[in-house]
Design goal:
The protein folds into five domains: about 100 residues, Beta Barrel (Lipocalin); about 110 residues, no CATH class; about 100 residues, no CATH class; about 50 residues, no CATH class; about 80 residues, Leucine-rich Repeat Variant (Alpha Horseshoe). The protein has 21 helices and eight strands. Helix 6 packs antiparallel against helix 7, helix 10 packs antiparallel against helix 11 and helix 13 packs parallel to helix 15. It is α+β, with helices and mostly antiparallel strands. The protein has an eight-stranded antiparallel barrel with strand order 1-2-3-4-5-6-7-8.
């Protein structure tokens, strides 16, 4: 009887301790780091938990070792088709989990690895996801296993068909025209694979008339073969000129790499590449981007060539660059224009014309060139962008009118450059000594043309750094010349 009572008492004691401890390990835990450093663990009484780090999250099954105070979360990785485990050390006093290093088994030591308990309320949608997890996991495993079986079956098929594939590959080497036969046009057949391999091997030779017949007669579904054909070195300029309108149609509706290869082909006339780069129509961005890259590449080659490009060439490439449309977040035309204006023989009249461009990158590039005309600088001085006006304020060829205009600019960074400009009149420098912008007064001290009366005034400036610099400059100027 005593033994039975002790057993019952022990069970009740264990149950009470578990009931008291178990809620502490459940709930929402996070390091609260913010942004991409956030790590969150949500442990639910159902036996499932959700772990989220950076921008990815996963659900898995958890088990808790009360003796070791460790929680193990087991998740299924569908890509690797295996289970992976994450371990967390529980600190009962802090009510927090610490992420454990999978290699050393030691818990993290930095604050990012400490997941503090925030709440016991897990979002309802996640609770629903936990309930659906077993069935979703079963389905995901089944799909992955089916994929593995299909891949294995395909590999076995390739092994069985390898002799036929090799025979057809040899046949194509002896007679490239054989590729026009229907047996070479399958998607996943020995002949289809042999033709793709042969066309992709640029060490092989295909007569151009055979390639032309393939372009004409291949089934429409064989767009990957047409993509390969437009990369073949045997295609002449005449053939490319004849087929490029159809290539654009195929590239628009079937495979944009067809046009990409056309644009990169060394025998494609520059006029066609420029048209693809500037008048894309319905072409996918991927194809247009390749054409624009080709234009930029050819322009860069011309810029370093000897003799340098002519004025006519510069005028033409500027028009092309200006006509290039922006693709997503990339403006290759702007990039090219900023490179063109830096060339030492870039025509001044073109440079002055670009001063009217509304894009700040081009305005900055024009303002930075030493041979930009006073008229162009006067135009850029009225830009609504302070960074452009600041670039103008540093130009050595500013007219007196522009200097006076920028000396009263609303942007302090612009006035600061005028305060240090070697051509700023003394009377303007005197007026700037009371400017509230720190860098204006600091640059007045650095300007060797600043009158002594300005330095004397700045020697009593409210700012200690300005006072000290002004007094140091006064001492330097008062020293006798050697």
């Amino acid at each position: 009887m005593k033994w039975t009572s002790r057993l019952v008492f022990g069970v009740l004691l264990w149950w009470g301790a578990s009931a008291g401890a178990r809620p502490a390990i459940l709930g929402v835990f996070s390091n609260e780091e913010g942004e991409f450093k956030t790590v969150t663990l949500m442990v639910h009484r159902s036996g499932y938990a959700y772990f989220h780090a950076a921008v990815m999250g996963t659900i898995g099954e958890w088990k808790y070792d009360a003796k070791r105070l460790e929680l193990t979360l087991t998740c299924y990785d569908p890509q690797a088709n295996r289970e992976e485990s994450l371990k967390f050390a529980f600190d009962a006093r802090e009510k927090a989990y610490w992420i454990m290093d999978p290699e050393t088994g030691l818990r993290a030591t930095d604050s990012a690895g400490r997941l503090r308990r925030l709440s016991d309320k897990i979002p309802p949608e996640l609770v629903a996801a936990f309930a659906a997890y077993p069935e979703n996991l079963r389905r995901e495993r089944a799909e992955r296993e089916a994929h593995v079986r299909a891949r294995r079956a395909h590999d076995e098929k390739l092994t069985r068909e390898q002799p036929e594939y090799e025979r057809l590959l040899v046949e194509l080497g002896a007679d490239p025209r054989a590729g026009l036969r229907e047996e070479y046009h399958g998607v996943d057949t020995p002949g289809g694979r042999a033709l793709r391999q042969a066309l992709g091997d640029l060490t092989r030779t295909f007569p151009e008339d055979v390639l032309i017949d393939m372009l004409e007669h291949l089934p429409e579904q064989n767009h990957w073969n047409r993509e390969q054909i437009f990369a073949r070195p045997e295609l002449t300029t005449a053939t490319i000129e004849a087929f490029w309108p159809r290539a654009v149609e195929w590239g628009t509706h079937l495979n944009y790499s067809i046009v990409g290869n056309l644009a990169q082909h060394p025998n494609t006339p520059l006029a066609i590449v420029e048209k693809l780069a500037t008048e894309p129509g319905e072409l996918p961005i991927g194809a247009v981007g390749v054409a624009q890259d080709r234009v930029v590449q050819l322009a860069r080659e011309a810029l370093v060539a000897t003799p340098p490009p002519s004025a006519e060439w510069f005028a033409h490439i500027v028009r092309v660059a200006q006509a290039m449309p922006k693709l997503a977040y990339t403006e290759r035309g702007v990039q090219l224009l900023t490179e063109l204006v830096k060339h030492p023989v870039f025509p001044v009249e073109l440079l002055n014309g670009l001063a009217e461009d509304s894009r700040w990158e081009i305005q900055l590039a024009v303002a930075a060139q030493p041979y930009t005309s006073g008229e162009a600088l006067a135009r850029l001085a009225k830009s609504n962008l302070p960074r452009v006006r600041a670039a103008v304020a540093q130009h050595p060829n500013l007219s007196a009118a522009v200097l006076l205009e920028l000396a009263a600019d609303p942007a302090g960074e612009v006035r600061a450059h005028i305060a240090q400009h070697p051509a700023t009149p003394a009377e303007v420098l005197v007026k700037m000594q009371g400017d509230a912008y720190y860098d204006v007064r600091a640059n007045l001290i650095r300007n060797p043309n600043t009158p002594l009366e300005v330095l004397q005034a700045l020697a009593n400036d409210p700012n200690m750094t300005i006072r000290q610099a002004a007094r140091a400059e006064l001492r330097t100027r008062q020293q006798p010349a050697p």
